[in-house]
Amino acid sequence: MAEERAVLFRADWLSASIGGRLVGNPDAAVSAVEVDSRAVRPGALFAALPGERADGHDYIRQALASGASVILAAVEGWKVRAEVLDPALARAGAAAVLVRDSLEGLQEAARAWRLKVPSLVRVGITGSSGKTTTKECLGRILAQKYRTVVNPGNLNSEIGLPQAMFLLRPEHEVGVFEMGINHSGEMDALVRVWEPSHALITNIGTAHIGILGSREAIALEKKKIFSALSASGSAFAWEDDEFLPFLAEGLPVRLRTFGPRTLEGLEGFRDAGLDGWALRYRGVDIAFPLPGTHNLLDALAAAALAADLGCGPDAVKEGLEGVTALFGRSEIFRGPVTVLRDCYNSNPDSAARALEFCDSLTWPGRRIYALGSMLELGTESAAEHRELGRRAGRSRADALLFFGAETFEAARAAREAGFSGPVVQTEAFDELARAAEGLAREGDLWLLKASRGMELERLTDILRGR
Fold this sequence. Notes:
Layout: H1 2-6, E1 9-10, H2 11-18, E2 21-24, E3 29-30, E4 32-34, E5 44-47, H3 60-65, E6 70-74, H4 75-79, H5 82-92, E7 95-99, H6 102-114, E8 121-126, H7 131-142, E9 148-150, H8 160-165, E10 174-178, H9 186-194, E11 198-201, H10 209-212, H11 215-223, E12 234-238, H12 244-248, E13 255-258, E14 266-271, E15 277-281, E16 284-288, H13 293-308, H14 313-321, E17 331-333, E18 338-341, H15 348-360, E19 367-372, H16 381-393, E20 399-403, H17 408-416, E21 423-426, H18 429-439, E22 445-449, H19 459-465
Parallel strand pairs: 4-5, 5-6, 6-7, 8-10, 8-11, 9-10, 11-12, 12-13, 18-22, 19-20, 19-22, 20-21
Antiparallel strand pairs: 1-3, 2-7, 14-15, 15-16, 17-18
Helix pairs in contact: 6-9, 7-13, 7-14, 15-16, 16-17
């Protein structure tokens, strides 16, 4: 009985749902969906996806050996390996569902699974920054009233979103899924899978501008999140977004805004520094624990959409007060050296906000800002890193550390801006770590800000060890 309760679907359902050719055992049962063969456990479906560095079809045998019950693969990818894969499939008593394109097959399977919960209220959140925090805030608020599901971590892409879709269960009433893009056309695929009935754009910034080319192109792609809305849905955007007129054009509903001026029921707010924000909302006092103006905007966005879905001020309070910092997003480590770790992602907008926030704090000790490369900026990279350096050079920092090849321009710009404190620039983490150890003193506030690929969080233990 326990095994049956864990079953999501069987191979014959998958084949029929996506029009794939079924090979092997039609009754093979699936209890999880994986795209990484290393994560496969008995009963999993393994979707063999081609990638830039590796082709998932090369790991099908490994997935079968780990207990995969069903393989989703491209016809051609299977065909060239059939001499090995056909007997491996038979030995495992498993099934394969073969389609023209395995990524499209995964997306169609996710859509078919979502359609099994037709009454679900579907919320989509996108934006250049803040979408994960907004999702977490909104999910916690809605959970006070509804059986709610959110996509975990960063499963928000054309691969991650379909994989997360299999978390849906018949008992769910509301789903809150963030939808992230980094190339043209990706939002089209995400909207087809999720079809948001309510959607929110946190902001139109510069994340992934090196791939999409311009903020106008980013706005065009982000706006597609509204393309599945009906007259019974709702659309939200930030009150100060310069693309508001463009985002509002042609929608089946009125574009509504969120922010400190336009959130209905917001009676006041006070910056509590590293302790977050004190809010007064519809007569209720709320202690929101995440610091910085960007996090305040995320909380207000969540409150606006939650109110639209029928949540009162008590639900907003319980939800927002229960939010905790996610890895690399406004994490605060207090101690002899206090560390603000905000290095899950970085782009010109979020880096500027991080500097402004640290400068705004009343802090008795020194401020040291460790800034890593901002990736995926394309031809804008040198200019944006120079601007980052100028901002840092005019900041209240007592020392600056720049990490990554792209930050050479930033370090030079900081000096040219008149920064008189120590400036370290290096591409070697060991050298960065030695510099941090030598600089750190009790009473310091350290900001760690960089793109995820720089793994700047490695400085945390070094600084806390001080």
